[in-house]
User: Fold these one by one.
Assistant:
Number 1:
Amino acid sequence: MIELVSPGALLVPRAAGDRLPGGAQNDQGIGVVSFLTAVGSGSVIFLIQFLLFLFLRNYLARIFKSKLYLAPPHERPERQRYGFVTTVKWLWNVRDEDTIKRCGLDAYFFLRYLQTLLAIFFPIAVVVIPVLVPLNYIGGRGSQLNSDGGGNSTGGRPDRTTGLDTLAWGNVRPTSTHRYWAHLSLSVVAVAWVCFIFFHELKRYVEVRQSYLTSADHRAKPSARTILVNSIPASLCSREKLRDLFFLFPGGVKNVWVNRDLSSLAEKIDRRDAIHRKLEQAETLLIKATQRAWRKAGKPVLRPDGVLEVATS
């Protein structure tokens, strides 16, 4: 149905789910019930997936424990069927050196990244929430924490807040703006804490990386003792001159490989292969012609004196 609002203007009906720009502001004041419902449904899904993982990880070991089959023998962990409590205890007591040795630096630093996130946000939550939530809620614009009207149900008073908005800093009254000093102070503390964690983790990263690169196991790998040098002048493109140039490296130079431009050699190889194919075709044609001539002439017979005699039909 189309309703004319004014000459030359049309009013197009909207679906119930369509929103105008800024329509999300109508969702202010979502209550605790909606929040707990969302958290509860997410927790149930997480619990189901976690239980499935605990059940399948021992039966689908090639998927969840591929390290037991794909890794080199000296890097494979022990074959055990850990229970939940045993797994948690083992993960809690595992050493960083064992993780680096069996999984490498990439996997270790990913776990370290997750640990860093926990170290950043958990202390901030422990300090900020008990201080700012009561400061925002007590004596604020609104106190209807359990209101769940699906919108800003303030009875036509835009200066009132409801639902979880009563815990935010927007609930502070204009007459209590001095409370914002607590927000500012905790913001400075949070930023300082994050900078401290970053500094500590970067320092730890340098230490672990340097320790790993200088370890005996890593130094024994060919990849740790091989360097690639580009843009070498033509006057130095020889093994003897390169050995003399890099003799100052600790331990000296063991092997030198000079990679040259072999594009012209590839063209000659293609020509050689083409000639080989033509030669094989000619040999095949010759064999076929000889076979046909032999069948046409007759089957040879070996005489007692050792002479082949062709018996013609």
Number 2:
Amino acid sequence: MFGILSPTSQQVMKTHVTICPEDDAPPSKVLRTDESPSRRISSLLSEATTSETLPLIDFYVVFMKNKQKMSAFLKQIPTTVGAEHLKRVDKSGRVLLQRVGILSIELLQALEEFGMTENDLQIAKVPSTRPVTRQQFDWAKQYWPTCFHRDKVLEGLLDSSVFTKKDKFEIYSWCKRALHVGSVVVQNGKELACSQITSQLLGHPVMTMVQELAKCPRQLGDYLATDCDVYLRDEPCAMCAMALVHCRSARVFFCKSSVNGVYSQGKWQLHLEPAINHHYRVFQVELVSDERKSSFCGR
């Protein structure tokens, strides 16, 4: 089915004429993506990524009154294993030592050498993991200075800026088709295969789509869905989600949450499972015509 045109080429697109500065130049047509606040593309990421906060743990800290001895003291105390994302000293001069528990002999010796004892120790709550978003970083630094490296790709996924207007228009168009047929596989703007639910025992749209995809000629070195986007009406169940892993899908877009789906937060989030040998991006697409009721994959 390589010859099938994308929905964007089959539909009549709304255009408006832009006046050109040159009298002899033809008027240009500008694509309107018909953006609507009801439409949204959401990347399904882990709760640890989308959370505004981070878990906190208790650490021993000590205040260094003599700042001139700070460098020598830092060289003497043991390295804070597991806290590489935390800075050793905060603005007030408190030094991060170790997690609350039994003090190491090396730390006790260092404290004694610099004229301090266990009684000088304080307990501070610090972020237990590295912040991955600006929002998490701003929250974490209220507790302790924390290292942060901006991830532009992740930020683009969080606010959907990873998609251009043209990308969004095509995604919405393919999702509208998926709402009618169940599942669609697309590569480079061309539909490779599509499928609806069947009466067979394992006749879920994804399973039958994979069977259809196996009949399509592929480029040398490509597996079933290599570099392909998959558009689905319903959030896949575990069986369908694993089938998309095995056929090496690149991205998966679905329109309706499923009772037995495995992508959303609070569920398995199979696409983020560390144990699987292939991972793909997952996006939920909300359309104006969407019904808000949950569906059921396979029905």
Number 3:
Amino acid sequence: MMEKFLQQSMDAEQKFYKYEEQRLKIEDKRREAEHARELQMLQMLGQMLAGISSAVSQRSHSRACSPPQRANRQSFGETINYNPVDRAFSPPIGISFFIQRSFSFRSTHSLKDMENIFRLVRNVIPPLTAKKHKGQDGRIGIVGGCQEYTGAPYFAAISALKVGADLSHVFCTKDAAAAIKSYSPELIVHPVLDIPNAVNEVEKWLPRLHTVVLGPGLGRDEVILEHAKGIIERTRAKGIPIIIDADGLWLIAQHPSIIQGYQGAILTPNLMEFSRLYEAVLRDPVDSDDHHGCVLRLSQALGNLTIVQKGERDLISDGQKVFVCSHEGSNRRCGGQGDLLSGSLGVLSHWAFLAGSEKTNGLNPFLVAAFGACSLTRQCNNQAFQKYGRSMTTKDMITEIGTAFNKLFEHEVKATN
């Protein structure tokens, strides 16, 4: 029965990706046609400007040969600040405004908005000070890791440390623990996820954690998913922020009620995961022409929790606002990038939650944290791709976290004694 269910799931995913490929081809054709129209418009404008310039040149030549009274009229023109030469090289107001709107206003506006949000991210980053103790800047718990998937929880946990958390815990199955421990001695690994009292064992640690990241490497074993469900419920009951990714989102699609209404949750679906969630919650297919609206509606339907839809541009919404993160990354899509995002988001969400809305100008702190994590992931991707190109992997991206973080955020965060 389970094999049949998994096969149906795989078939559905293949159909989705086939549909998405067709949609992207149509979108590419549309963009090409739009680009051709823009080029044609620019050519027409160039011809118009050349004609105006030629006319002004001829007029200036005729004025130079005209009687003195014509020169007097020119002087009169200057007193009212009429300059035909300047006008010749400045398109009419309507045309100039159209060009500005089409080619510069949108990008300038978005860059300004992004810089404003970057400033808010910097506001929530705690200063480094000698007065702090171990664990104060973040104790993050990663719930995931099974026999098949040991890399994902490691990527999430080590990313949290690299961003600035003090401690990273991984709650995984017994057969995944040894592998995860061998990746790094800096992780605290708990092989409890597949024991009968797994929920109680994880709950013991919840008071010591600032944030829980559930899903990386979780797998779809029914027993493990049932334990994950219980962990979500206990985490929610204690008011601890929780980031849900990967197979954790599969669980939410089956049981939306376990997270519905909990605004301390952040979901980080990719396109396929978002489509599955959207259809499960809203009982309608995703509108491919209205991505912003779909993210907004799904957040609202789930009780205004924060959603990060990963894609060509990351869309972030709490049901009231939609942020778009289009920070430059690369076209390389190796596995594990989402784990880097979820791990870094675990830290940033704790910092933002601790800082409060006064440090985010009244914005939902989780929106600011999500924007910071998306930007950081993209910056790591960009830097690693510049070095390794197609051979880049998530491990290469993780080595870039320090320099990427400094470049985006650290220059305004001062260390204090």
Number 4:
Amino acid sequence: KESKETPKTQKPKEKTKEKPESSKKHKGKKETKEKDGADASEPNEESKYNSFNKFAKLCEVIATMSKYSDKSAAVKMFISRDDYDGDMLTLVRLLLPGVDQRVYNIKEKQIIKHFATIFDLPPEDLLNEYKNDGDVSKVIRDAMEKNNLSRVTKGNWSIEKASRIVVDRWLNKLTELTKDDEQIAHLKFAAKRMSPLELQYLLRLVMKDLRINAGVKHILDGLNSCAYEAFQSCRDLAEIVDRAKKGQFGDIAITMEVGIRLGTPVLPMLVSYIIRAMYREHIAQR
């Protein structure tokens, strides 16, 4: 009896010891995967329209358009494709960096010095290029391409918040960094995982100027011809994008009602116009 009982008592002990060890190993694998999740070679499983590479190329297209109406048309074509399933709100927010309230504690000359350190290039050369060109993002892109400093042709960065490598999250982190070594490490992380084109537009987001010569009206006109007027009254991009997706901009009175319904501040010069529009709608319904 004793010989039979001992193995029975030993087996559960062995199992209880093995389970925590295997779970620890499993957790360890998860942790390493999370740390290494920023690998540029890892495939992006999200919508292709959430790709930051596509965002950068859209900016390039908009920049080449000379007419403002064509710039709006480019935005409209991008979001009106039959298979479009991207994050429209984040897309619009990124296309309007001037509306963004985030503050980045970094200036153009600091960026030059940081990338001179990252790329091991003479800072004087980059500074001279910047003085001649005036566009720090283009200087960094040109330096990457001329010196073959990037092996990435298309990064897997996304604008979607559910992604592992998110531009928005990277920008949020940058707002917290004030020391040179912290900023250099953060910029280096992006430089290793982005193509020169993508890095150029990431830096332009930091500078809050995409250099596409398109203002709020031109971008929002790409959503709907009434979207800009509605934005002037409510200043809520989420509401504007939601209405654009639902096709709720059919009537100017309904458009101007957005600000009142939300209870958000309305521009003084629009108050009388909104009241008249609402009154006309009320009379029409009687």
